[in-house]
Write a structure and sequence with these properties.
sigma factor activity, 184 residues, 8 helices, mainly alpha
Length: 184
């Protein structure tokens, strides 16, 4: 029985490898179109293939395998774009103007910069701080925030825009203060 299960596992692995070889590059391009980051797109495609392997029995063949995998990729990409992690990265990149492509050195710098971001966030008025926190950290939409705060959605969008701008200015001020103190 052990050799029979090894044969079945070998066949499944071969099938999965064939699916990856046939569709992997295409799915990577699809994911990249959504997330605009190669490493993230690779992670999404890897998750798609793992999910496909785990739920192989759910594929009913109503659409082509490529269509099925593309739909999974699009759904995972949407999930990522709605995720808290992505919103934090997006806020960090918008405020600092820096990409989060990671190297070990970059990771250490980012940790310090994120601490500065949090400190700068708490210097904002509560009006601006709350919309940033609700949008980026609580993952609420502008519609949900407007309902919660009982104000128009346009007001929330304006507050978000102004909050980002103020936050960016405060981070620039912090960097300037650090440079000024270092030269003394």
């Amino acid at each position: 029985m052990g050799s029979v299960s090894k044969v079945k596992v070998g066949e499944v692995v071969a099938e999965i490898e064939e699916v990856i070889d046939e569709h992997g590059d295409y799915l990577l391009r699809v994911a990249y179109l959504y997330v605009k980051n190669r490493a993230t797109a690779e992670d999404i495609v890897q998750e798609v293939f793992i999910a496909f392997y785990e739920k192989q029995g759910q594929y009913r063949g109503e659409a082509s395998l490529r269509t099925y995998l593309v739909k999974m990729t699009v759904n995972r990409s949407h999930d990522f774009l709605r995720s808290w992690k992505n919103k934090r990265i997006t806020l960090f990149e918008k405020v600092t103007g820096k990409s989060t492509n990671r190297t070990p050195e970059r990771s250490l710098l980012e940790k310090a910069e994120k601490q500065e971001l949090v400190e700068a966030l708490f210097t904002l008025s509560i009006t601006y701080r709350e919309v940033l926190i609700l949008y980026y950290f609580q993952e609420m939409t502008t519609v949900e925030i407007a309902e919660l705060l009982d104000c128009p959605q346009a007001t929330i969008r304006t507050r978000l825009q102004r909050a980002r701008k103020q936050l960016a200015n405060r981070i620039v001020d912090y960097e300037w203060e650090e440079l000024r103190h270092e030269s003394i």
